[in-house]
Design a protein that fits this description.
Layout (H helix, E strand, L loop, with lengths): L25 H23 L11 H30 L6 H16 L9 H9 L1 H15 L6 H21 L7 H33 L8 H20 L3 H20 L10 H23 L8 H26 L9 H23 L4 H28 L9
Helix pairs in contact: 1-2, 1-11, 1-13, 2-5, 2-6, 2-7, 2-11, 3-4, 5-6, 6-7, 7-8, 7-10, 7-11, 8-9, 9-10, 10-11, 10-12, 11-12, 11-13, 12-13
Length: about 400
Amino acid sequence: MGRSLLTNIGPAPAPTGLLPIAAKGFRPFFLLAAAFAVAIVPLWLAMLGGLLRPVTYLDPLVWHSHEMVFGFATAVIAGFLLTAVSNWTGRETATGPALLGLALLWCVGRLAPLLADSIPHGLVALLDLAFLPALAVVLARPIVASNNRRNFVMLAILAVMTTANLVVHLEALGVVGALSGRRACLVGIDVVLVLIGVISGRVIPMFTRNATGASSIRSVRRLDQATVVGLSALVILDATGREEPIVALVAGVVGLVAAARAVYWGPRHSLREPMLWILHLGYAWLPLGLVLRAGASLVPWIPRASWVHAATVGAIGSLCLGMMARVALGHTGRKIVAPRRATWAFAAMSLAAVVRVFAPVLAPSSYLAFLTAAGALWTVAFLLYLLDYMPMLIAPRVDGKAG
């Protein structure tokens, strides 16, 4: 993504004459993801504090988890894949009205649960469930047409996420048992971590090597494969409800393997470049979260939720922010240099993860205060992103090219 996004074949030319916001998938979806991130956490905190009535369609905790995974993270994934797949295949994915229609479908899915008191619950489910299959169809056409076998995994990831989302709604409709929605959200987190495992191995060492010229930076294929296989195993274990000791053991082993692969990616070379260190630091939360998951089953004072927030706020939040920042610069024709406010956004996100994961362990009596602080830092991070990047996302490329 130094010059383009994971170029295997070359970027597909976007049609000319389009509104800039509709020219490439990253534009509307990164804008929506950042705006949603700014709104959703304060909304959740207001519900926890009794200032707003909780959502009635889903259990409030399930709703929060659902919106962070199937709302925020899915928007970032959509923006990334719609842009990347056109580069991987040399064929366009969705632009113009089709792209804006996908974005509208995502928005409808976010609003539907909030309107559940006014519309049939079955319609709420259908409106939210429509987005991921539609995205998969749009992405499948160029991937299959170009026989891009390496990226069939992306379609499998979207299929599993769709299934997990379906289970959340089936619980809300009373079709499956209680707690199924929580398990489905956990599986959704697992699937996003699989995607992180795949994409990080492709891009972080490449970006770091290209930016620093350090020839020692490389990927170790066996460690990459072992990490992705292990993360996929966790999806299966969580989906089937395996006993925690087994899951904890697998998580601990995968965490160590995931950490080992990153040693070869040159993290020490990234310290002076914010566009690099946010990716390395974001990835570091993935093995840490897995090790915390293993530790929580052995050490009583480690909250079981710690690993979830290391994975979500730490890994998913940081990597989404870092990739959104990088992709937007590269694909609007700009140099890959972090704007000043973006650097502060990276710092705020990193601090939010530290507070969310470790403060409840160190000061459990002040849990709500630290939760609020972490939420505020998360919100500030994406607000700073919007201040720097909204003008880029809605304006034509600075180099005059289409896209």
